[in-house]
Amino acid sequence: MQSIDNKMVDEYVNNVCGLVKNKKVHENIKEELLGHIYEIVEEYIERGKSEEEAINQALLQMGSFDVIGSSLNKVHKAAPDWILLGMTSVFILFSIFILGFMGVNASSSGNYVDEISKKYIIRNGFYLIIGIAVVMGISKIDYRSLKKYSKHIYIGSIIISIIGLSISPFVNGVRGWISLGVMSFNVLHITPILLILSLAGIYENYDWSSLKNILIGFALGFGPGLIFLVAPSLPSLVIYTMAVTNLMIISGIKLRYIVISLGSLGIAFITFIVGSEYNVARMTAFLTPFRNPDGVGFIYKQIATLKNSAGLFGQGGNYALDVLPLANSDYILTYIIYTFGWIVGIILIALVLAFIIRIGFIGVNTKDKYGKLIVSGLCSLFATQFLLNILMNLNLAPAFAISLPFISYGGTALIINIFSIGIITNVYKWRNTPYITA
């Protein structure tokens, strides 16, 4: 028999599917169940049973439909990763608390920064609402529907970056800021995410076997780095380069080509640094923070002084907000350690590590290569940014203009980071669901 035309079998299969809420997998489940039932029926018929008897025995052997249905519903449940969303929420709520504490501390000192801190909290709250709306919107779509637009997203991100850099003025030595009414955003925060989404689709089935394709692949991946050089934004360049390198490795390029390319980029970077005495002094000042305390070593001296006097439980409200510039953004970890102590700082760093591991876990357990590339690329973006900021705040790396994701103040960055988490949880949500284009 090639098929089973039996009302009891149809009823059994429909009852199982009725307990599986994810309707996108119903056809797959039906096909799999009918295949199992068919094999069992064939076995009983070979033993001399009639077709009706064989079907009855097969359904008994399959087990209760409610048990099977409940089990399959858990396997194919299309739900976001609540663990990752919970970690993200903890970071954001902690950020709001920190900014509020800064305001209270400033107010108790009669410092005008109190009003600034209030503004930060209000604006971050506004951007948080936008971010939540974005995540809710993303949850309604299947990330795999974006793959066919990979080339369009790539071209669009390049155009947006060029326009943004062309029309925007320098702000703190970096271009890319665009104002739209009460909102302002930096294209340098948006571009890496869009490029990762597009390159994931381009690299999914990319052929790295020929030299021509390797050169084209490198141009597509590393070429946009020129955008960050023009800005100029060295941190964005480093973060983006690490993410693209990870995408290339996962997509199947041979490791020797990556070593050669990164080696060449590293030599060019070192040559650039060594070519200027000021750059050398700036990049190495963190090694001797007290050598030039009023010059390039000022930031490093302040960080060293604050973290050395923090203690296990911190100094509470004794922090003066004008001691360290950008305490609410780039150096917020130093502020946290000094104010609340090394215990809180270490817990925060441990949570960051768990956050990165969780994203990596999602990437490793995603079978769809497109989804795996997206999650791995975004994981690299987060991991590099977190690592650079933490090392910088511990005087273990040169000072960069780089914030701590979700914790530091920053409207554009907050929305983009929440958007990235939305994409990652979307991959997690559909990881066990076949993609239906119809």
Question: Can you tell me about this structure?
Answer:
By secondary structure, the chain is mainly α. The protein has 2 domains: 7-75, no CATH class; 82-429, no CATH class. 67% of the residues lie in helices and 2% in strands. It is built from 18 helices and 2 strands. Strands 1-2 form a two-stranded antiparallel sheet. α8 (187-203) packs antiparallel against α17. Residues 109-114 have low confidence and may be disordered.
Short description:
The chain is built from 18 helices and two strands.
Topology:
Blueprint: H1 7-18, H2 26-46, H3 51-62, H4 65-75, H5 82-108, H6 113-138, H7 150-167, E1 177-180, E2 183-186, H8 187-203, H9 211-222, H10 225-230, H11 234-251, H12 255-274, H13 277-284, H14 298-308, H15 332-340, H16 342-364, H17 369-393, H18 411-429
